[in-house]
Amino acid sequence: MNMLFFIVFLLFSALIFRLGIVQIVQGEDYQRKIERTEDVTVNTSVPRGKIFDRDGQIVVDNMPQNAITYTRPKNPDADEMIKTAEKLAQLIEKEIDEVTVRDKKDFWIGKNKEKVKAKVTDQEWNAYENDEITEDEIYKLQLERITEEDLKELTADELEVLAIYREFTSGYALTPQIVKNVNVTDVEYAVVSENLSSLPGVNTTTDWERAYLYDSTLKTVLGNISSSKEGLPKEMVDYYLSRSYSRNDRVGKSYLEYQYEGVLRGQKTKMKNITDRSGNVLDSEIITEGQRGKDLILTIDMDLQTAIDKIIEEELGAAKRSGGHPLLDRTFVTMMDPNTGEILAMAGKKYEVNDGKAEILDFASGNMTTSYAMGSAVKGATVLTGYMAGVNQPGEYIVDEPLKFAGTPNSKSSWFNRGGAMGISDTYALMRSSNVYMFKTAMKIGGASYIPNGGLKLDPDAFGTMRNYFNQFGLGVKTGIDLPNEQDGYEGYVDQPGKLLDFSIGQFDTYTPLQMAQYVSTIANGGYRMEPHIVKEIRQPISDSNKLGPVAEEFQPKVLNTLDLEPGWIERVQEGFRLVAQASEGTASRYFASAPYSMAAKTGTAEGVYDGEWDKSKGSRPMTWNVTLVGYAPSNNPEVAMSVVVPWAYESSANAISINNVIGRRAMDAYFELKKQKAKAKPAEAVIDQDIISNTTE
């Protein structure tokens, strides 16, 4: 017995000794392991860069707004999240319009565990226990058997809790998710801030909303961004995730916002979330302050842009009311600096009737995404193509006469010469818009000469030859503008040689209004095809300010190609364009001869079958006429070039309208009047923060 007691004594002594080591010697180590935390670094979004026009007027801004967020832990507890949602629902008002039937069913299941269990029969439960059906199949059965009467049991308060809980679960672990950022009152913001200690994961912050200050101007070119709920577009998730984006980041979805996403997105704030072993967020601290995106300075003059928008709205509306084609629904104007390629204005409007109400909506993007037959406005390219192809010489006279070919019922002639023959020069051909001069130029390129009542046999390569020369002006190829989705036009189907004659007067292939502006700029500047661009500079941002920071990048003029011209060639076309606008017989002189500036221009009219959207049930497509205008000023020292395109303007020559010339004159007047006003205005104070410049230099 003594031996047994001694052994027991030794065992108890060993146990007490071991407990002493664990509690006294190693106690702090074990306590630290119990209380161990993890540091997890996450990125949070910052406001996007702002967009200004060429004069520093803000076009796109960020409007701050109160926001309530929730950061979900790595290992969320649904019951705890619902409790937090219930507490938050007592402090804020949350709309329930986004709550779906599926959301309600899931929430009802969580609130009625006994009732939902009864939705499954004993036989089905037995099958589940015998692994004959899965847990997912059981849940599916429960969802299917929840009735509308069951869902009516959810009260308005419970639905509000559900709406909040839905936002909690839609986020990603350790990443702040917006719960409410619209119409968050100051009272709600303050009350939630005061109760953050009892609302795990909830926080109050300042969010932002993209604000486009010109609602009906240039909107389709500026583009848009995704919402905080939408996050990354599904089709580009992998692309953005590989570039350090989060799934709920707002990104540019179209046009300028999309094209310059990498510039506008900014540098995210890096935050360290301190979590316990269960993944619950204990604290957060900022590691690196973020910086909003860089600012864009556009080449656009918003004063000019809005003035032209107004002109288009007035003239398009007037044309619809008096004599315009029933299908007339759009008008485009592009103005650019022919020497630099800077887009000064890109205006487009579309007439629509919605719910019986007529509206004129922004369609500026149509300048580069839609194309049309442009008619005689392209004849400057035809004349220069004749020179470059070696078939014509500057000043050479060609007989303008009605052309009659074997097998064709009608002759092809110029509008001013339906009979007889007259020798005309290249400049006269442009001034009066001779079709026959262009026809015979095309025939020469095709290796043929005109024989009255004879056949028309042309070299099959003639189309390729003429198109290649037209491409050098920017016609039929992308202009290179710094925007996505640009169209390069449509090449007509060649089924007979006579189509080459139609091509030479702009009634076969289609071009965009932007291509027409680039084409006339190439003529205006002496033969240099300039790449058009809509962004002039990228600037460093200044926090909480509408001032402009220092230049981060400046876009220089870029020559895409130079026409291979002999001395004096392009001057002949420039003179022809001047005569169009200023000589008494010029096709645009009625509108521009009295202008206080010296205008050079070329008008165009293209007859053809309507090629817009068409309901086949209405029968065959009607015939329509497109009217166009290209030009530049001053004619002797061009500083602005312009294209005006009005598709489907009228039905026949009997109701012809000159909306192209009226808009062109008013647009040019607006340009020079604004130039005069700005020259008289007091120079604006410098808007660049000098301290930032000096700091950057240092």
UniProtKB/TrEMBL annotation:
Residues 332-668 form the Penicillin-binding protein transpeptidase domain. Its EC number is 3.4.16.4. Residues 45-283 form the Penicillin-binding protein dimerisation domain. It comes from the Bacteria. It is an enzyme of class 3 (hydrolase). Keywords: Cell membrane, Cell shape, Cell wall biogenesis/degradation, Membrane, Peptidoglycan synthesis, Transmembrane, Transmembrane helix. It catalyses: Preferential cleavage: (Ac)2-L-Lys-D-Ala-|-D-Ala. Also transpeptidation of peptidyl-alanyl moieties that are N-acyl substituents of D-alanine. One of its GO terms (biological process) is regulation of cell shape. It is a single-pass membrane protein. Pfam families: PBP_dimer, Transpeptidase. Its main location: membrane. One of its GO terms (molecular function) is serine-type D-Ala-D-Ala carboxypeptidase activity. Gene3D superfamilies: DD-peptidase/beta-lactamase superfamily, Penicillin-binding protein 2a (Domain 2), Penicillin-binding protein, N-terminal non-catalytic domain, head sub-domain. It is found in: Cell membrane; Membrane. Belongs to the transpeptidase family. Pathway: Cell wall biogenesis; peptidoglycan biosynthesis. PANTHER family: PEPTIDOGLYCAN D,D-TRANSPEPTIDASE, PEPTIDOGLYCAN D,D-TRANSPEPTIDASE MRDA. This is serine-type D-Ala-D-Ala carboxypeptidase. One of its GO terms (cellular component) is plasma membrane. The keyword NAD does not apply. InterPro entries: Beta-lactam/transpept, Beta-lactam/transpept-like, PBP_dimer, PBP_dimer_sf, PCN-bd_Tpept.
